[in-house]
Amino acid sequence: MKDFNEDRLRHARKIRKKRRKRVILTIISIFLLISIGGLSFMAYKSYSALDNTYSEIERGAKSKLRDEQVYVSNDPFSVLLLGVEDYSSEHDKGRSDTIMVATFNPKDQTMKLVSIPRDTLVDIPDNGENKINHSFAYGGKELVIDTVENFLNIPIDYYVTVNFNGFKNIIDEVGGVTVDVPFDFYDINKDWDKFYFKEGKQKLNGEEALVYARMRKKDPRGDFGRNERQRQIVTSLIDKALSPKTFLKVDDLAEEVGSNVETNMKIKEGLAFIQKYKDFSSSSLEQIEFSGTDEYYSGVYYFIPDEEKTDEIIKELQHHLQYTPPETEETDEESSY
What domains are there in the chain, each with its CATH number? Predict the structure, then answer.
């Protein structure tokens, strides 16, 4: 059993991590900004394409942990970000290969972003203990939301999913992304094609970026290293998306987002988000990481999060959301007598 002490590595990458912005949600926001920017017919088409991203969840607009619905223009809120691997079988819903939770606070216009390693051992409602990424296979985004709410004890107000085809196509549309490869390695795609990566700056197309983002077994940091590379790509993608050249491709990009991204955030809510967070910058973002241990049960690998660190993360996210769990309220009332 190995201890995961990531403090020094996190400190060495502190500056780069602070550049991690609004992940997939930012991509959607960019197009919404262009839509209200007065780009005439092109903006109208982009707005229409983005309308396809909306997909309501069964529970409705309000988390079961909320007494009232929150509004992005006034309230702290959370977003579950999922990178989804689709499978060809109609009976296999795939896996949530990337799981992140972002919390936003309108008062100080700050964001906290936490990555949950996909092999984290958690309790999946009505399915027992298993890896957290299996929750998508068991019950789709609905069950992932329930699982994350149960694990972090915070409400999940919105979700955003993007599938791998969309990931690749969006990167190709912006002309590729440039990353800082941490060490030499090669890996394969689903067709067994080999892709080589050399330490240092390297420009990647969509297929290369997907292979780069997904590699794990050759990384000495495992899931932590992979999460780092995924966020490298997202940062580079956002830089590209904000460049003037990309504005000329807004229709094609909006079509890709509309075809491959799902969210329960309506366009009007996205517009309210942009207006409220118009001064948001990378300095307003804080990255949070779990620590824990590697363990094997019956030959299967699991990541076991450290209980003390997990409790710290939960309290930090609850405070950022200004959310007090019901059981905490009861405890406070009892202690006052």
Answer: 51-321 (3.40.630.190)
